[in-house]
Amino acid sequence: MTFRLAVPDVCVTGLGMVTPAGDGWYATWDRVCEGTPTAKLGPPMPVPHLACTVADFDPVRLGRARSRRPDRCTQLALLAAREALSDAGLDPVRWDGARVAVVVGSGSGGAGTLESEHRALLEKGAQDVSPYAVPTSLSNSVSAQLTIEFGATGPSHTVNTACASGATAIGTALDLLALGRCDIALVGGADATITPFNIAGFDRVGALSHRFDDPAGALRPFDAQRDGFVMGEGAGMLVLERAGDARARGARARARIRGFGASSDAYHVVKPGPDGAGLAVALREALARAGAAAEDVSHVNAHGTGTPLGDRVEAAVLAALFPHRPPVTSTKAVTGHLMGAAGAVEAALTVLAVEQGLVPPTANVDDLDPAVALDIPTKCREMPLQLALSVSTGFGGQNAVLAISPA
Fold this sequence. Notes:
alpha/beta; 407 residues; 15 strands; 13 helices; 13-stranded mixed beta sheet
């Protein structure tokens, strides 16, 4: 017998994003709908690389202390969280912090701080290591800083399921709401992993695109000429509330989170299971918790990283489970791969898709892989969306799927 914790009637009341596509949810959504990639030649590092960076990012907006001490990952999350709370019409000064949960997914946490402080240790000695080095680089530093910033004294969790972290964080928040552990969940993902170690490591494993002569066209989800992804950075935060609580305070519901499914391939530390069985389990679980059938799905925001094997396995699973061929999008062609933040940002983009009845395009699909039997729009498509899925996977065989419907 399979036990499923019932998903309460949860709605999204606030969105916040800071991504290479734009500062704020509106700017990000606008560029994603334009289908204009953000990839460029990356900053100087030992390994030549491409990157999608947050342009003109000024942490001074956070205040003096926040602009100097936290890792860039945390700074991005703070900005996205401020926007999400404002969008939800919530004032942390007035809420009961004990009923507010914070759940953040991050693949690497304070990776930039860890690397820079390690260099200081090796080059200058222990006396040059910052006293903030450890608390700033810990994986839980992002969620901890958010609780401090907003006086949220309820449950605080940090989730790491690699590149599925942001989506898994949202699933975790759904369970906290279902169990009555909180009334408001500030949830999302953040990562800033464009660092020498991460670039070198992902390059060595063969995950990165080497299309240096065409940076904007490098990340090519489901295209026959794809050769890997482009590393990005960013943060996406959502405010989740039970629908009754949101109505009671007169809040606008942007969309409903209907279901969540998670699974593990139990196959390989990098490669997805070749038969896609693990991903199929997560997809079916999300639909089951949403009380929906496969034919109810009208749109899928796919993981779609542009890696040869990953795209092929994901496409095969989606084609098999959804023979009615709902339109499938990968927004990573515009934003880059935001790593642990990807699932949260893409969930937020899926919220906007169902809210506005607009399927965003997948950029850089010039020659669809013949093995990809999917409907991949290359231009925005207006259509009513009754149920959309946001799909995330990660190293280690992690799978997470969110089912989202209009409010």
